[in-house]
Automatic annotation (TrEMBL):
It comes from the Eukaryota. It is found in: Plastid, Chloroplast. InterPro entries: Peptide_deformylase, Peptide_deformylase_sf, RNA_MeTrfase_RsmD, SAM-dependent_MTases_sf. This is peptide deformylase. Its main location: plastid. The lineage of its organism: Eukaryota, Viridiplantae, Chlorophyta, core chlorophytes, Trebouxiophyceae. Belongs to the polypeptide deformylase family. GO terms for cellular component: chloroplast. Residues 31-47, 140-150 have a biased composition (Gly residues). GO terms for molecular function: metal ion binding; methyltransferase activity; peptide deformylase activity. Keywords: Chloroplast, Hydrolase, Iron, Metal-binding, Methyltransferase, Plastid, Protein biosynthesis, Transferase, Transit peptide. It is an enzyme of class 3 (hydrolase). HAMAP family: Pep_deformylase. It comes from Micractinium conductrix. Residues 85-97 have a biased composition (Acidic residues).
């Protein structure tokens, strides 16, 4: 039978009376057993005063426990339905002490009562009695009244939502003032949802936007732009890192100009496909891409394959990389068998690196000569294993906040040692060149900016600490340094300590609250490794024409990382700790570090350099940092993000 008085409504769903018009009513009566285990005690008889009872809540829906209160509101006029409890005290007859329920159908002066014991209920009886009591369509006036059976009515709604049968019957029984109250509460709830909806929609819309800032670096598709989703759906490998990876891979594989056409590449967590497409562009014969997001596959990955004209050599698998590896372990020659190269660049926070390593180690998709690239965050460095099945870790590199481990065949141990020695020799030569540049500093007249003030005494409070955005001192004017004594040396030393402590590769004096034109950096980001560079009163002479896009972070924005485009080369003039003037040319990662810190000296922050679509992905985080700062520093004069 059609669902009735919401309750299942009434207590434990033992009776489900049906109400179809205001002239008909059904009553569910709880008959309490003599032992007190039956129904609830009936509230006072006579004329009962109606009162508001909360039977509906916007968040949780109908309040079944409060439905029996409807007897107070509706029982007096015989309209609708009621749930009443029989008296416990004074029950002397067998009928009164039997427990269970009785259902009474009341219609047109006809009344039929049927009693049921605990656990019993007969749907067929109530259907028959109700059909007999209900008026025919001819007696209902044939109109659109609630009792007309032949009428085709529009489904009833409440605040634009189509009601279920039980809800229809309950609302039909409510007095008007309660309906008005429910409608008012619904409107208030809709207003609250409307306040949240724009932000949620904006975030969802951002995920559906794309940009084309990444490029293929080398090979047949060199220079082609790749479409990438805006936001945090994917983390494509930046051009600088990708170029370094392929240089190492080709060196390990013994290829000078390209990768052999008979080789195969597996790109796990493919995202935009930047790594796999780069491999195809450089000569790989076949590449399999594994990406779990259908939207990214259809809107970015497939588009990029077509743009770079490599779709004939590509196979796309839509699904989780972990499931792909499990299927490969259970199926013979899955995906064509083992691969020569495998790139594993997962979203750091969304994967279990232990599980991932376990799956790759036993995977038949590797052979003894395979080369595997694994990208990982520094905080998970302890999980990176020295071996991966038959393969040994041959390289471990850091590029900004990107860390890479490269695994290769065990037979390459000797080559690895030789390569390490060659790398050490190259590093020594690079250090010597830098020392030569510093040692052969030309006593050039550095053009001074006479508009910038000159400080002759350095003062600061120890210990130094990095200022968080949007501290006004990050935007303040920074004066030139005119004193080269022990205080300058101690300031530089303390800045290095703060930089290493906060896991940075560069730091400008304004970031620690000292508004002078001084910066320090070490591209390795590790103490006692690499070269520590101190630049006093630096100036940019010129920059190269080529520009690179790279993911940057900033110690003043500890949780924000985003793409920033900068020149790949820069020539500068500066002074050292003794005040001697010199010129220096920087390329690659050191050039980017310098430009980032140089912006701090001019009061420019790295989000000022972001493209609008990139800035939109981090704007909410910037606003949250601003609000948090103002909470701690009420009335502070800060520059808000545009």
């Amino acid at each position: 039978m059609s669902g009735a008085c919401a309750a299942q409504a009434a207590v434990a769903g033992r009776c489900r009376p049906q109400v179809t018009s205001a002239r008909h009513a059904t009553r569910c009566q709880a008959r309490g057993g003599g032992g007190g285990g039956g129904g609830r005690r009936q509230r006072g008889g006579g004329n009962r005063q109606a009162e508001d009872v909360e039977i509906f809540n916007i968040e949780s829906g109908w309040n079944v426990e409060a439905l029996e209160e409807m007897g107070d509101l509706l029982g007096a006029d015989g309209r609708g339905w009621s749930v009443d409890a029989a008296e416990d005290d004074g029950a002397t007859s067998d009928e009164d002490s039997s427990g269970g329920w009785s259902v009474e159908v009341v219609a047109g002066g006809r009344s039929e009562v049927q009693q049921f014991s605990e656990g019993e209920y007969d749907d067929a009886w109530l259907d028959e009695e109700w059909d007999a009591a209900a008026p025919s369509s001819s007696s209902s006036g044939g109109g659109s009244g609630s009792g007309g059976k032949g009428a085709v009515a529009t489904p009833p709604t409440f605040n634009s939502r189509v009601l279920r049968t039980a809800e229809q019957q309950l609302i039909a029984s409510l007095p008007r003032h309660m309906l008005r109250r429910l409608e008012e509460e619904q409107r208030e709830a809709d207003k609250e949802k409307a306040k949240l909806k724009p932000a949620a929609m904006k975030k969802a819309a951002a995920r559906l936007k794309t940009h084309e800032q990444l490029r293929i670096i080398s090979g047949t598709a060199a220079g082609r732009r790749l479409r990438s989703p805006q936001g945090d759906q994917t983390r494509p490998m930046m051009e600088m890192v990708r170029n370094a990876v392929f240089n190492m891979v080709m060196s390990l594989y013994g290829c000078a100009s390209g990768l052999p056409a008979e080789t195969r590449w597996l790109d796990l967590f493919a995202g935009t496909g930047a790594v796999g497409i780069e491999a195809l562009s450089r000569g790989v014969g076949e590449c399999h891409f594994v990406e779990m997001s259908p939207w990214v596959v259809s809107n970015c990955l497939n588009h990029n394959l077509e743009t770079c004209e490599v779709e004939s050599a590509a196979v796309v698998h839509t699904g989780k990389a972990e499931d792909f590896l499990r299927r490969a372990a259970s199926l013979n020659r899955f995906a064509g068998g083992a691969f020569d190269f495998m790139s594993v660049c997962p979203p750091y926070e969304l994967v279990d690196y232990n599980e991932l390593y376990d799956l790759v180690e036993v995977s038949p998709l590797l052979h003894e000569e395979s080369i595997v690239i694994v990208e990982y965050p520094k905080k998970l460095a302890a999980l990176v294993r020295p071996t991966l099945g038959p393969l040994h870790k041959l390289r471990d590199r850091r590029y900004g906040r990107t860390f890479l481990a490269i695994y290769g065949p065990a037979a390459a141990g000797a080559e690895r040692q030789q390569s390490a020695e060659r790398g050490a020799a190259q590093a020594a030569r690079a250090r010597n060149r830098l020392q030569d540049l510093l040692a052969d500093m030309r006593a050039e007249d550095v053009e001074e900016d006479i508009s910038a003030p000159l400080v002759t005494k350095l003062e600061w409070q120890s210990p130094l600490a990095v200022l968080p955005y949007p501290d006004p001192r990050l935007r303040a004017v920074n004066v030139r340094i005119g004193v080269f004594d022990d205080s300058l040396r101690r300031l530089a030393e303390e800045m290095f300590e703060v930089m290493y402590q906060d896991d940075g590769v560069g730091l400008a004096a304004p970031q620690v609250g000292v508004n002078v034109r001084l910066m320090v950096f070490n591209e390795t980001g590790e103490k006692d490794k690499g070269e520590e560079i101190v630049l006093v009163n630096p100036q940019i002479v010129n920059t190269g024409k080529s520009r690179n896009l790279f993911e940057e972070g900033c110690l003043s924005f500890p949780t924000i990382y985003a793409d920033v485009e900068r020149p790949s080369k820069v020539r500068i003039k500066a002074q050292d700790l003794q005040g001697r003037k010199f010129t220096l040319s920087l390329t690659g990662f050191p050039a980017r570090i310098f430009q980032h810190e140089y912006d701090h000296l001019d009061g420019t922050l790295f989000h000022d350099r972001m493209e609008p679509d990139v800035l939109a992905t981090v704007k909410q985080q910037l606003v949250e940092m601003e609000e948090a700062y103002l909470t701690k520093n009420p009335g502070a004069d800060i520059q808000r993000v545009a």
